[in-house]
Amino acid sequence: MPTTTVDTAQTSASSLQPVNLLKEEIDQMAKIYDLIIDFFANYTFQLIGAFIIFIFGYYIAGKIANGVLRLCEKQKLDITLSHFLANTSKMVLVILITIVALGKLGVSVTPFIAAIGAISLGAGLAMQGLLANYAAGFNIIIIRPFVVGDTITVQGVTGVVKEVLLAYTIIEDQDNVEITIPNKHIVGEVLHNSKNDSLLELSVGIAYQHNPLEVVKLLTATIESLDIVGQQKHPLIGIDEFSDSAITIAIRLWTPTVNLYQAKYKAYEAIYLALDEAKITIPFPQRDVHIIQS
C-alpha cells in the first residue's frame, strides 16, 4: 500500500508539468501583448510623426539635390563635380532628417554619434589606402586638373578620361580599353594633360636628288588639306635628319585622341599619294660593295 501511494503522487506531479509550462508560455505571450499594446498606445503619434518627418524630409532632400544639380549645370560646372555636390547635399540632409525623426521618437542620438565616431576611427585605420583614394578623388573633383574628355598621361598610361569617381578614375586608350587608375596614384604624380588632342609624329625619307624645302611645302599643303589636325596648334613639318640613304622629313601634328590611329593611317596614305604624284622617290637602304683585287 505505501508503494502505491508514492507512485500515484509521482504520476500526478508529472502530469501537472505540461500544464504549468503551458500556463507560463501563455503568461509570457500575454505580457508581450500588453507591452505591444502599451507601446502603440503611448507612441503611436510619435511613430506617425517620425515617419511623416522622414518621408517629407527625404522628398525635400531629393528636390534640393536636383536644384543643386540644375544650378551647377546652369553655371556650366564639370559634370562630375555637379553630381558630387548634388549627392553630397542630399546625403547630409537625409542624415539631419534621420536625427530629427529619432528625436521625435524620444531616442537620444548622442550614443549613436559616439559609436559612429569610434567605428569611423577603427575603419579609418583599417582602410587607409581606400581613404587615401577618396581624399585624392575629392582633391581631383575640387581642383580639377583634368575633366571628362581630356587626354591624360599618368603612371605611364595614356587615355581619354571617361569618368572621375571619388575612389578611382576611368580612362580609355586608343584601343577602346578602359583603364581604372586609383586616385591616390594620380594626385602628387607628374600628370600630362593634352586636353582633347594627342601628338602624332610621322616621318618620311626622300632621295637626295630632290629639293627637301619643296617637299616640305608639298607635305604641309597635303597635311593641312586633311581633316585630322586639331584646333590647338598648327602642324610642324621640316627637315629632321640627313641620314645615309635619304633626307628625313618629320611631321608633328596634334590630332583628336579618339581618332589617333585613323589619323595616322590617313596621313601616311595622303603622303604616299602626294609624293608619288610629284615623282618624288622614297629611297630604301642600300649599300655599295667594292671588291679590290690585289
Write the layout of secondary structure elements.
Layout lengths: L1 H73 L4 H26 L5 H17 L1 H16 L7 E4 L2 E8 L3 E5 L5 E5 L9 E2 L3 E10 L5 H14 L10 E7 L4 E10 L3 H18 L17
Antiparallel strand pairs: 1-2, 1-5, 2-3, 3-4, 6-8, 7-8
What does this protein structure show overall?
The chain has helices at 2-74, 79-104, 110-126, 128-143, 212-225, 260-277, and strands at residues 151-154, 157-164, 168-172, 178-182, 192-193, 197-206, 236-242, 247-256. It is of the alpha+beta class and 294 residues long. The strands form two sheets. The chain has a five-stranded antiparallel sheet. Helix 1 runs antiparallel to helix 2 and helix 5 (212-225) packs across helix 6. The model has no long low-confidence stretch (mean pLDDT 80).
Kindly summarize this structure in a few lines:
This protein has 294 residues and is α+β, with helices and mostly antiparallel strands. The protein contains six helices and eight strands. The strands form two sheets. Strands 4-3-2-1-5 form a five-stranded antiparallel beta sheet. The protein has a three-stranded antiparallel beta sheet with strand order 6-8-7, with helices on one face.
